[in-house]
Amino acid sequence: MDSKKKILVIESVESCIGQFEQLFSERYRIAIAFNNAQGFEEAKSADKPGLILISEMGDVVDSFELCRLLKNDMNTFSIPILLMHDETSGKSNYRGFDVGVADYISFPLVQAVLFARMEAHLKLVDLEKKVERLEVHDGLTGLFNRTYFDEYLKQEWLRARRSEQPLGLMLIQIDGFEEYNQHYGHSELEAILKSLSTVISKRLCRPADMVSRFKVKSFACVLPDTDHPGLLLIAEELMAAVAELKIKHQFAGPSGWLTVSIAADFIVPSGVDQFIGFCSSVNKLFAKKLSQEYGRIIFSDS
Fold first, then answer.
1. Among 16-20, 58-62, 124-128, 213-217, which is the least confidently predicted range?
2. Among candidates 217, 213, 219, which has minimal Cα distance to 234?
3. Is it the case that residue 256 has pLDDT exceeding 70?
4. Which of 14, 95, 103, 125 is 20 to 30 A (C-alpha) from 202?
5. Percent of the chain with pLDDT over 90
C-alpha cells in the first residue's frame, strides 16, 4: 500500500490542475475535485484525505460554505483545510478562520513555504489522532467506546432523517457473562472480548457501519441504510461466526459453547423526539427478552 499521505485539492480552474498534480505527485497521493460537491464526497470517502486544499480562484463564498459543511460533519471535521488565495485580487479576506480554515496560502505558491505548512498541519493531525484514539476507543478491544457511539448514532440519525432512509441498531450480548468470569477467570474473559470484537468488526464491511463496546458485556452496532432483512442477515452471520470460534462455556446452557444474543431494530427517522424512544426500546428489548434464553435474535416485532 502507498505510504504517501493523501491530499485533496479542490480547484475549478482547469489550467491550475496540472500544476498541482506536478507539484504534489512525488510527495503525496493527490485527489482532485472540480467543485464543492465532488470535494465534499471525496472528503467523506473511506480513503479520507489527510489535508484539504481549496483554491479561492473561484467563488470565495462557496469556499466558505464548503468549509462549514466539512467542519459540521463528524467524518470530516478533523481534516485541516488550507485556503489558497490571491492577495492581489482584492476579493480575498480572512473570514475563513471563522468557518474552520486552518491556514491560508498565498498565490503565487512558494513550494518550500507550502510544503512546510502542509507538513506542520499533517503532523498535528497525527498527534491529534493519537490523543483521540485514547479518548474514543475502548482500551481492551480497540473498538469505539460508548461516548463515540452516542455521538455517531446522533449523527447517523440526522443523516437518515434527511435522506428518509432506514437506520439499524443492533446490540450484542455475551450469554452467561458473569458465569464465565467466575469459572474461567478474568484473563480468559478478556481474550473472549477481543476475539468477539474482531469477529464483529470483520462482518461490518461498509464504511458507515460502526461497532462499539457498549457495556461491560455487550457491543452495539450502528447500521445505516439497513432494514429488517439486512439486520437479520447480519445477525445470523454473527451468530454463525461466534459458533465457529468454539469457545467452551459449560455454564451457559446445554450446548457447552459460548453464545451471544442479539437485539435489533430499525427506524426511518421522521422527528428528533423519536430518538430517545427508539434507543430505549431496543435497550429494553435487550434486557427483557434476552434474559430468558441464550443464543437468540430478537426484533421488536418478535
1. 58-62
2. 219
3. yes
4. 125
5. 43
